[in-house]
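Many introductory courses stop at the sequence. We go one step further.
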Amino acid sequence: MGGKKKLSLKQMEKMQMREEAKKQQKEKEKGKTAEKEKKPAGILLPDIKSEKIVEELKKMHVLTPYTVASRFNLRISAAKDLLESLEDGGVIKLISGNHHIKIYSVD
């Protein structure tokens, strides 16, 4: 019947060597990624009345939830809440938007 041909001893040795090299390569890559620690995005909103946050926002020309989330290391939902509360406080104003994304500007 058919089937896979038996490998010679030399071919088996080469195959084992390749597998060991792959394992060592994966272990090296794991060591590199283990060095970098990811910080979880913050869930809590920063203080809206803080002048430091308002100054950072004034430096940005256009405010979107993504830009605010990346700048302050927040989740996008928390950044949306932050922008809405700043709009209610009169610090920023809504330029354009729909149900997916809203674009704000600093007054």
